[in-house]
Give the backbone structure.
Amino acid sequence: MSLKIDQDHSRFRQIVKGKIRENLRKYISSGELIGKQGKEVVSIPIPQIDIPHFRFGDKQQGGTGQGEGNPGDPMGGSEQEGEGDGKKAGQGEGQHALEVDVSLDELAAILGEELELPDIQDKGKSKIINAKDRYTGVRRVGPESLRHFRRTYREALKRQISVGSYSPDKPVIVPIPDDKRYRSWKTEAEPVANAVIIYMMDVSGSMGDEQKEIVRIESFWIDAWLQRQYKGLESRFIIHDAVAREVDRDTFFHTRESGGTMISSAYKLCSQLIDDHYPPEEWNIYPFHFSDGDNWSMDDTLLCVDILRQKILPRANVFAYGQVESPYGSGQFIKDLKEHFGADERVVTSEIRDKDAIVQSIKEFLGKGK
């Protein structure tokens, strides 16, 4: 019975995953999932799965096929009799979408399969370690589950030969407690690949709520994929207009400033964070910058180029710049990056016109497996 239940549950999970794949692009472009995110799972509405149920008829009717009407007549009465045609408020219970909990790891796996994202080859090992047990030898005591059969047999054979009880004609080997040998182990510290995402975003007046929602959705899916690739993942958040400052996640997505934009202030702070906390030989570093493409001056843009080339790119796995379309932004900055770094594979740029462009943007950012 338990096996049957497990099989049914597994089958149901496969159906759910299939439905998620069918509607993945819709889920990615929707911010609804983020509001349903728990610590390790996300609740996803699956409206396409119908739950079977019984509906009882009127007691006054006869048995099967014995009611009024002729073969081929519509069931359930005429359209005029019902109250569920959208013209009146009905009294009956409506159909509800089924919500299922999907782990972030499962969600990231589906994302990777559908977008054909390659696994990332990490470039460093962190000082943060995992404890891992390794079998290293044999000892005389231990649990029976770790008994070493071959070594126990050998000790028993040696003992019987030495005392003269071994007979080649009747080679029966009977171990005694002193013959038993057990596997021994020791706990070794194993480095764990770690990564940090440094999100930077322009929060000047031209970056409105719609633009920030696009960044919020895209960062959720980027986090989900990178968490699957690395056991340790940290996120840092920088906002900037003319001045940059580090903030928490909530402030990052809800602050709205005004005034000019100096992108170099964010790049300087990003470089300082790497200097202070994330040595590149131990960390995989992912700076992501989102803006509408406006910058204060060409001089500041050239300063950004210099900071990228000298300080950020030599230490980062990849530098990602996403330009969110805004009716108030000039969109010039992405052109400048392409002019200076068009042949550099470490710099990935993406133009995000609206929510429907998020899927392609994620593939552009993560599709090289760096």
Residues 129-189 form one domain. The chain has eleven helices and ten strands.
